[in-house]
Design goal:
Layout lengths: L1 H16 L7 E2 L10 H8 L1 H13 L2 E2 L22 E3 L3 E2 L3 E6 L5 H14 L15 E5 L4 H10 L7 E3 L11 H14 L3 E5 L13 H18 L2 E7 L8 H4 L5 H5 L2 E8 L2 E12 L8 E3 L2
Parallel strand pairs: 5-9, 5-10, 6-7, 6-8, 8-9
Antiparallel strand pairs: 1-2, 3-4, 10-11, 11-12
Length: 296
């Protein structure tokens, strides 16, 4: 079968790299009605199998190297893709972004500020760009709804344009059923921005220290963002006593940082504990944004 052909090709390549000289041939047992030698041996018995194997060897094809046809293509044939920003250069549109920092530094407040900006159509901080009034979907598991409402009001948002997911009706976990629900929510309500605070609240049984599990859990979100042209901002925590280097400070695998297109970190100004700093820690599609100082 196809898997057996691939295995035979890779085995020949491995033998050659190990220094095996002479000609290598691939024996196709499938020509005799069997997918593998073990199956044929069991059906024919030792003597008949040996005769059949000798016949197959006479028909073996020389191995001429790994088949790489179609694996290499011209980059000039790739269509150029325009990169848009939700808030230049801190958050990339139609992509997954991260807002990270230690607990109590103002991450949740910033999600409310973003919700206010996009729901009302306000100008961005330190920018001449103004957002069009747009629906926002907020998924939060720690703060009461009344607190979130008060924050958005204090930031000048349009409450009619802000939606939130009601965890009391049904939990939302990032598994197959959860992503089907999230996809449908985005399809129906078409939010320009989706905030998830904190990310850990929707990961369920995902082991955050295993990169393969992190990728499997979050990759569907990337597809949803691109398909429905919505932007995700995920709130994530730093480890206690964490390094100031973003890639080394997040809880869990570095798969989180690899998957997001931009990461903004929030911390305390070392010169004034009442002032917060917003720094641009990861930036795939732009130069790093200036570090901003703010107070809550």
């Amino acid at each position: 079968d196809d898997a057996g052909k691939i295995f035979a090709q890779e085995l020949c390549h491995r033998l050659r790299t190990l220094g095996v000289r002479g000609k290598l041939h691939v024996v196709h047992m499938s020509r005799f009605g069997a997918k593998d030698p073990g199956e044929l041996l069991k059906g024919l018995g030792p003597d008949a199998f040996l005769n059949r194997f000798r016949q197959a060897c006479k028909m073996a094809t020389p191995w001429e190297g790994l088949n790489v046809e179609g694996l290499v293509k011209k980059i000039s044939n790739v269509q150029r893709k325009k990169i848009d920003f939700l808030w230049y250069p801190y958050f990339v549109s139609n992509a997954v972004n991260m807002l990270a920092g230690k607990p109590g530094q103002g991450k949740s407040f910033l999600t409310c500020e973003l919700a206010a900006i996009f729901s009302e159509g306000k100008p961005f901080p330190m920018s001449l760009d103004i957002s069009e009034p747009s629906p926002v979907l907020m998924i939060f598991a720690e703060d009461p709804e009344s607190v979130v409402r008060s924050r958005i009001e204090s930031c000048g948002g349009d409450l009619e344009n802000v939606l939130y997911y009601d965890f009391t009706q049904s939990p939302l976990l990032f598994n197959e059923a959860g992503f089907a629900r999230l996809r449908r929510l985005v399809e129906v309500h078409r939010p320009k921005l989706v905030t998830i605070d904190p990310l850990a609240s929707v990961l369920g049984d995902v082991d955050m220290n295993k990169q393969n599990e992190v990728y499997a859990a979050l990759s569907p979100m990337v597809e949803i963002a691109e398909q429905f042209r919505t932007t995700f901002v995920l709130v994530h925590h730093q480890r206690k006593g964490a390094s100031t280097v973003a890639a080394e400070s997040m809880i869990g695998s570095q798969g989180f940082q690899s998957l997001v297109r931009s990461m903004v970190m929030v911390g305390v100004d070392p010169e004034n504990e009442n002032v917060k700093l917003l720094s641009h820690a990861k930036h795939n599609f732009s130069s790093p944004g200036a570090t901003l100082r703010f107070q809550i």
